[in-house]
Design goal:
The protein is mainly alpha-helical. Helices cover 68% and strands 2% of the residues. The chain has helices at 16-36, 46-57, 61-87, 96-112, 120-137, 152-168, 171-201, 207-225; strands spanning 140-141, 144-145.
Length: 239
């Protein structure tokens, strides 16, 4: 990976490799919580809202109240990341994007130490929280809106961009098609790696995603303290 000069249009945290690794870790999270921590996906909340509506419709008030916990954690993650993202700039040490990856690493390491006896909800809520912060913080890869925690929109974009490329043969459609398609591939790879490691290593297998996140953290920290040091207050695209 080449170093990017400080006059580049896009920051290091907006480069493709960052999004590829982030969504790989997200795929790992999904496999981990589904296989070992309650059979749920922590990356998004659509399913939880459907279950909430069903519970309300069936007058299962306690089930509905319980579902507010992961939904609330996801809401809180977005709120906290938005507040901190604006306030940490004044310290001029690291970008919020970089700090967030460090927080994720610490959370993931802690989760790997939790024994099987610990309620699955603790792991689910923690991953809901950090996935929400990640989703809210990393919004555009080189100017193209992209999610780093789930692939629903990427699948839609692949279909849409493919149709546009077939009609127009334009560079923009081709670029978007490749980015969204590659993010789907990396998410799938992360889920496969997570599933294999869950089967082989059990509950500590979540640490594999921390290795991926550590690679991101190191590179972004280097950027913050060297060739992008004078751009710590610069806002990434999409914010």
């Amino acid at each position: 990976m080449q170093h990017h000069q400080t006059n580049n249009e896009y920051l290091e945290c907006e480069q493709r490799w960052v999004y590829w690794l982030l969504i790989t870790a997200a795929g790992w999270f999904g496999a981990y919580t589904f296989m070992l921590r309650g059979g749920v996906f922590c990356n998004a909340q659509t399913a939880n809202f459907v279950l909430l509506a069903i519970a309300l419709g069936q007058h299962r008030w306690m089930d509905a109240a319980y579902l507010l916990i992961p939904i609330g954690a996801y809401f809180l993650g977005a709120f906290v990341s938005e507040m901190l993202g604006k306030s940490v700039k004044r310290f001029h040490l690291l970008r919020w994007d970089t700090m967030l990856i460090g927080v994720e690493i610490l959370v993931v390491i802690g989760l790997g130490f939790l024994p099987q006896s610990v309620p699955d909800q603790i792991c689910q809520i923690a991953l809901n929280f950090i996935c929400s912060m990640q989703f809210n913080t990393f919004r555009q890869v080189k100017g193209i809106p992209a999610a780093t925690t789930f692939v629903t929109n990427h699948i839609r974009q692949v279909g849409s961009c493919l149709a546009k490329f077939i009609r127009h043969r334009d560079r923009e459609s081709s670029e978007r098609l490749l980015i969204h398609g590659s993010l789907i591939v990396f998410f799938t790879v992360g889920a496969i790696l997570g599933a294999v490691c869950c089967r082989l290593f059990g509950y500590p297998s979540v640490w594999g995603s921390a290795v991926i996140l550590l690679a991101i953290f190191i590179r972004l920290a280097i950027a913050d303290r060297s060739y992008e040091k004078d751009q710590l207050s610069r806002v990434p695209h999409g914010h």
